[in-house]
Design a protein that fits this description.
The complex is a heterodimer of chains A (326) and B (215). Chain A is mainly α and 326 residues long. Chain A has helices spanning 2-31, 53-79, 84-99, 104-114, 119-147, 152-193, 217-229, 236-248, 251-287, 292-321. Chain A has ten helices and no strands. Chain B has one domain (18-213). The chains are: A mainly alpha (326), B alpha+beta (215). At the A-B interface, helix 1, helix 2, helix 6, helix 8 and helix 10 of A face helix 1, helix 2 and helix 3 of B.
Amino acid sequence: MIAGTGRFAKRVAQAAPAVLVLLMLMAGEALAQKSTPFGISRPEQSITGPASPFLAWILTETARYYQLLVDALKESKQNGTASLALITLSFGYGVFHAAGPGHGKAVISSYLFANDEAVKRGIALSGAFALVQALSAIAMVSVLAAILNVTAQTMDASTLMLERLSNFMVMAVGAWLFWRKGRALWGLIAARFGLPGASIHVHDANCGHLALPTDSDTAKRNNMRAILAAGLRPCTGAIIVLVFAWRQGIYGSGIIATFAMGLGTALTIAVIATVAVMAKSLAVRLAAPQSFAAAITVRTLEMGLAFMVFALGLILLAGVINLPSA
Amino acid sequence: MRSLLLATVLLGCLIGRAAAHPHVFVNSASEIVYDDKGRVTGVKQHWTFDEAFSSYATQGLQQSANGGYTREALAPLAQTNVENLKDFGYFTFAKLGGKELLFKDPVDPYLDFTNGVLTLHFFLPLSSPQTQGQKALAIQIYDPTYYVAFSLQDDNPAKLDGPPQGCALNVIRPKPPSEDQKAAALQLDEAYFSALDQNKDFGAKFANNIQVNCP
């Protein structure tokens, strides 16, 4: 009887990962937005908490800044130059937009928490992410609208392609991190109990301090590059503003506005990233008094966050993989 | 493993929960159409888009000599517009005496392009004509996900087309926040959002209401 239960439990444990992935795919598929209102432009995939007053405030402010920045852009047509107002408004739009629903900051902060990064690296990563996003929008509109003069629907299809690519990259980084962190956790356990697999561990709990092993700099750089690829999906607002600017003959102002948006985005994400880095170093510090349980807790947390990155990527990818392109 | 499952389900609930910020701004005018028997048959919508979205939507389309677009050149776009609106219930929510009314597919959709902006026109027929009697007819126009921000036109946001005698039209716009509420918002005060039903979609806060009462 007991043996039977054990076998059953084992079978469940074996099936669990498959069930998990299936669930995620179903979640993504169920959440996939089959169409866009009016069939033109692509809403960004969003992660949202409950309908909080704070979120409502963010959304209304983002809308307000967007309209003001489009007005300022129109004015710049008369003045012939991008005004300070345009730059300020675009910056403000970027700040609020990045604070609203969207997965960029979730990916970056989860990644930073799962790794031991300095605040400086976190800020640099946020800035680079926003820059990639701005450049991607400019490159896309320059090639598709300015040079090839394709329709909005073709541009939407390209956005969708970039969306798939960036979601895939998020998923891949998450999977890779999850594997690494899982190995590290096992290493910790193995070192303590003299089990096989301890050798993959650089330090052990007897070092005198709880130096948690970290990935090599090369591995980190590769991870960061992959995270940056998540920024390849340009923001819808930037695409519309750029196309509008191009068609009004004020493309230069549009590009300046896009970079200003990027700066605002970078600021918000950097603040969130800094919180993530600080939360992580606090967790490590609390675990520092060489307690085995504390080390295990930190490692498990890291694994959890790595899994979050993976799950995010997979769910978001499932949400866009089956959509018809154009 | 169980906690991972739980985390995934939670994550799934968070992602895609409808909320965006608008990239499409629509100024709406509606006509409520009655037949010769005095029954409501549907709603004619005239939706004017904002300049930036109009510019984006017409990108790459065949322009006429004056830089505008003919109705013919815009026909495929109009078709795309209404086809995709189906999944969103045409952002038009009608109730008669508190009972929800259903719509059929739109009729005669077309777009025109004037002064740099697109206007989408279509007739949205009720699944069956309704005798209104003394029941209140309420029509709401809004996007629950707030990707499209709807506002009602300043002049004639709604009209009645051939209503029974004595029917009165009442238009209620979403209230702009008062100065006190704006101040409260800066402190992220709950008071600012007291009007917002926490369990409802964001867009409902921005709903435009048209009401018709007949004697």
